[in-house]
Design goal:
Structural class: alpha/beta
Helix content: 40-55%
Order of helices and strands: EHEHEHEHEHEHHH
CATH class: Alpha Beta
Strand content: 15-25%
CATH topology: Rossmann fold
Distance between the termini: 62 Å
Number of domains: 1
Shape: globular
Radius of gyration: 18 Å
Length: 177
């Protein structure tokens, strides 16, 4: 069984209804047996559960512990984000560190932060999103995932951030001298 997951607060800007429609289409069109999971709480949780209560392959899990969240990330085949607006999006970074393929709506922030390691789909193009998920599920590749993991480690690990902060502090101190 293949697993597709998303992590985030269930609110309108995260577009959980797109997640549901995309999941339904992938399940209907792929030759793979696949389940979709959304981890996270929010005002729309109960509504999303009601919308999918008869669909065993689409689950809204609500809050889960960090240990369980990591387990879902480690065992998923694809991580997706249907958000229409984001900041850093920590779960994408976490998924990239675990060498998972990422598919998301084409937000400028993703290209800025994650270079070309996130497969971007034009906003509102659900059919393209569905095609990309099916392509990744049916033809998995590790090459980009390995490079993405290295990129995140080099740029966003605690050590990389510490070095950048020290460089900034060093520059500030020497400017004042």
């Amino acid at each position: 069984m293949k697993k597709v997951i998303s992590i985030g607060k269930l609110e309108l800007r995260k577009r959980p209804t797109d997640f549901i429609e995309i999941a339904r289409d992938v399940i209907r069109l792929t030759t793979e047996e696949v389940s979709f999971f959304w981890i996270g709480e929010g005002d729309l949780l109960e509504n999303c559960k009601r919308m999918t209560d008869t669909e065993t392959n689409i689950q809204f899990l609500g809050y889960v512990s960090e240990v369980k969240k990591k387990s879902f990330l480690e065992t998923c085949d694809v991580y997706i984000s249907t958000s229409e607006h984001e900041g850093f999006n920590m779960p994408i970074g976490e998924a990239l560190l675990l060498k998972k393929p990422i598919i998301a709506y084409a937000l400028p922030v993703y290209r800025e932060i994650y270079n070309n390691f996130v497969q971007l789909v034009p906003l509102n193009k659900r059919s393209k999103f569905v095609q990309e998920i099916i392509r990744v599920l049916e033809n998995p590749t590790k090459e980009i995932s390995e490079k993405a993991c290295a990129f995140v480690q080099e740029n966003y690990s605690a050590e990389a951030i510490r070095k950048r902060l020290l460089k900034i502090l060093h520059t500030l101190i020497h400017e004042k001298s």
